[in-house]
Amino acid sequence: MATSKIFTVAFMVMLVSISLVPPHVNAQVTCEQITLWLTPCIGYSVVGGVVPGACCQGIKTALAAKKTVEDRRMGCNCVKDLAAKIPGLNYDRVNEIPGICGITIPYKISPSLDCTKVN
After folding, report:
1. Residue 51 to residues 34, 64, 97, 103: CA-CA distances in angstroms?
2. Start and end of every Bifunctional inhibitor/plant lipid transfer protein/seed storage helical domain (predicted)?
3. How far is Cα 70 from Cα 96, in angstroms, rounded to an integer?
4. What is the pTM of this model?
């Protein structure tokens, strides 16, 4: 029951956050898209367990969509900002997901990540 409430609160926080993130005029990928693609990863990031296939597919889709440096930086900021708003998020688990999915991501998500250095 508590886990269900955590997921509900986390999902609601993400939905509200989407509406607060300013659009990036030149970016081809939006924060809203990235949020939808990565939402299946929230459960593992908060309580652990098994990483859903939809999470791995969402990461692959998000990475494939980020074709420009601006897209990658916007995506980095989006993930960083939204992650900070999820109650109970475990950054160690977040950073385990790419390896579990067999994906390489060139940076670790953390509150101190400098997305301006993402190329």
Report:
1. 17, 20, 7, 13
2. 31-115
3. 25
4. 0.74
pLDDT computed for residue 19 by the predictor: 37
Asked whether 28 and 68 are in contact (CB, 8 A), the reply is yes
Give the CATH number for residue 46: 1.10.110.10
Give the tokens for residue 56. Answer: 């791995």
Specify the length of the chain in residues.
119
Q: Per the structure, how many domains does the chain have?
A: 1
Q: Show the domain range for 12.
A: 2-117
Q: Which amino acid is located at 10 in the chain?
A: A
Mean pLDDT by 10 residues, the chain (119 residues): 49 40 56 94 95 96 89 92 93 96 92 93
Given CA atoms 111, 96, 52, 89 in this order, what sign does their dihedral have?
negative
Identity at 117, one-letter amino acid code: K
